[in-house]
Specification:
The chain has 158 residues and is of the alpha/beta class. The chain is built from two helices and eight strands; from the N terminus they run βββαβββαββ. The longest helix is centred in the last third of the chain and has 18 residues.
Length: 158
């Protein structure tokens, strides 16, 4: 499973001209399920995302997580957007192949599970619409952009 994290001051997703998800400071997570991925990988990836220390402390050092953005318990928003194009393979020519991405029904099942777990573990979760034509806007803070990939045999993040 692949995630591309962007630390944001704000982010939102629009579908058909209407806002479907919006956050203030926090993380925009572009999420892709690949063939063979499982809910266990999604759970591992979410645990890593929630604990990843990429928010600055008073000294400007990345020392705080989404669940403790300022060291005083302030939580940031989490905007989860499905994006199968993260599985792109452009090594064979000029047109990317997306065969590594999970089939749409399996991708939706894994995305829905990830979102359900995020809602259970974090109070500020918004989403896009799976398989919709979405317009995503954001103000990247830093900028900080971090790719994450969780393979089936990876250990659970600490």
């Amino acid at each position: 499973m692949i995630a591309l994290l962007q630390r944001v001051r704000q982010a939102r997703v629009e579908v058909d001209g209407g806002v479907v998800g919006e956050i203030g400071p926090g993380l925009l997570v572009l999420l892709c399920a690949e063939r063979g991925d499982t809910v266990v990988q999604g759970d591992k990836l979410l645990a890593k995302i929630l604990k990843l220390r990429i928010f600055s402390d008073a000294a400007g050092k990345m020392n705080h997580s989404l669940q403790n953005m300022d060291g005083l318990g302030q939580m940031g928003g989490l905007l989860v957007v499905s994006q199968f194009t993260l599985a792109a393979d452009a090594t064979g020519g000029n047109r990317p192949s997306f065969t590594a991405a999970a089939a749409p029904d399996e991708g939706k099942r894994l995305y829905d599970h990830f979102v359900a777990q995020a809602l259970a573990l974090h109070p500020l979760v918004q989403t896009g619409v799976f398989a919709a034509d979405m317009q995503v806007s954001l103000v990247n803070s830093g900028p900080v952009t971090i790719p994450l990939r969780v393979a089936p045999d990876d250990e659970l993040p600490r």
